[in-house]
Amino acid sequence: MQRLIPTLLAATLACGSLQAMAGADLVLYNGKVFTAEPGQALMQAVAVKDGKILQVGSDAQINALADASTQRIDLAGKVLMPGMIDTHSHPVLGAVASLGANLADEVKPLPELEQWILAELKEDRGRAADVILISGVSSAYWEKSRELGQVFNQGRWAEQPLVLSGIDGHTGWANSAMLKRLKLDAAQVKGMSEQDRSYVGHEADFTPNGFFSESRWDAVRSQVPAPSEAFMLKATREAVRINNQYGVTAWMDAAANAGSEDSLFDFKPTEHSYGVLPLYRALAEKGELNAHVAALLLANSKSRPADLEVLAKVAKAFEGVPNLSFPGIKIFVDGVLEYPGQTAAMLEPYKNSQKNGQLLVEPEHFGALVAAAEQRDWIVHMHAVGDRAVRESLNGVAYARKLSSTPRAHSISHLQVVDPADFPRFKQLGVIASMQMLWATAENYTVELVKPYISASAYSHQYPANSLEHAGATIAGASDWPVSSPNPWNAIAQAITRTGPLGVLNAKESVDRQVMFRAYTLNAAKTLRLDQHIGSLAPGKQADLIVLDRDVFKVSNEELFDTQVLKTFFAGKQVYAPAS
User: Fold this and answer.
1) Could you give the residue range(s) of every CATH 3.10.310.70 domain in the chain?
2) What does the alpha-carbon distance between residue 542 and residue 555 come to, in Å, rounded to a whole number?
3) Which of 87, 336, 511, 536 has its CA 20 to 30 A from that of 475?
4) What CA–CA distance (Å, rounded) separates 462 from 448?
5) Topology, domain 229-534
6) What sign results for the dihedral spanned by CA atoms 296, 300, 301, 303?
7) Is the pLDDT of residue 18 over 80?
8) What is the CA radius of gyration of the chain?
9) Mind listing the pLDDT tens digit for each residue in 479-514?
10) β-pair type (503-504, 499-500)
11) How many Cα atoms occupy the beta-carbon half-sphere of 324 within 13 Å?
């Protein structure tokens, strides 16, 4: 038997050598290849084998790896990059909204809005059983709650429940027929705690006007009949398709364990809170999950370390699902900045209310929760809009840093207002800035609904990407779809120009395109804790690739905004090309 061992070993080594000598499965050559590897210049070509990057180099080097069975693609000078990565998204919800009646943030005069809704209903969009549900509604409508009531509380709407779901995910409006179903009246509002009452728009006599925010909005949303399982699977498939269309091959799902019936802002998860996870698993089992999904498990903002055990059981239930990973937890630290919501936690009070918004975490306990997450080898991804929320998020990480010898790369998302004193803390604490740069625009949301209500200093530090970059922070790209488009090219261009219908928002905070290319590739992969596998084109990493229709290193910022993806590859397999 011992005599056979050298023979078997030799045969094994020979087999391995033959495999190594076999040609690449795919070569893409004659292009401008951005690898996202630090300090590496543009290359010409890429070779792929078994779904992974075999080599990146010159045309001569890469073509030498091909044989008769290799698929060859002449890039004809086109740009090839790693797949884009989104560090904060809700893709299934985004796809659900896209398949229904969706205003997509457009503001229409109320008579036009009514006619638009009626037209959508004729096209069989906008019904959730007997409730009419309109998605993507601009916050600009909320200061017109009385006017909304004058249109949608009478006539054909008197007995028809109608819900307008805010595009920000934190706010919405319901007509009187829906309020009747909820059994919500002045007496109920009067009997609420001061905090809950602050989430309900009401008159002086406590009569609700239909506007809701945060947990009270959740109470309304949870009463809208849920779509069927078949529809949800269709939406999940559509979420993958849309992302692939934009060149996105990985994302962090920022509340994967929360379902449509759950209260996001006062979420109390159980070990059976599965949210959209079964949908991802169903697609994976069919071989259709053509993206990496880093699923964040939403925890209650006031969670204690022991509460994380139920989340660990959820992750365990989906262990081993292809292309699905569980990097850590998501925490809401505050709400939104825009009037009339004003639930973002601010260091200085809002001018109209003299209140500081809502800090959802308890500072005296939050650090212990971050430390407990680290002990489980989890990151904490924090929703923080206001400058006080950002500071308390950083304070929580600072506490954990004192206890841990192996710090994790936690992340804070949104970062609408950051106090300058906190800029250097991101680098000091190793906290990644997950930023939705499509929001860095002078428009209704950042000017008319914000500027009159916050201090001039805070207003001047909206979406401070350049300040954070110069302070050494790692910037990562994000969309928060369906709050805004999942198209990274729009966000990349917006980060540079910061222009909008009302001018330029803090021009000094503009960043260059190289910063944003890194933000959507290797930096984003670090945020998902997948940088050893994706995020750059290096031998051994998965071959997630995109081919673009223009030279994104040379075109104008306006042309950059409209960049189109010609091909998307996931694990070396083409998963998207535009219809011919």
Assistant:
1) 130-221
2) 29
3) 336
4) 14
5) TIM Barrel (3.20.20)
6) negative
7) no
8) 25
9) 999 999 999 999 999 999 999 999 999 999 999 999
10) antiparallel
11) 27
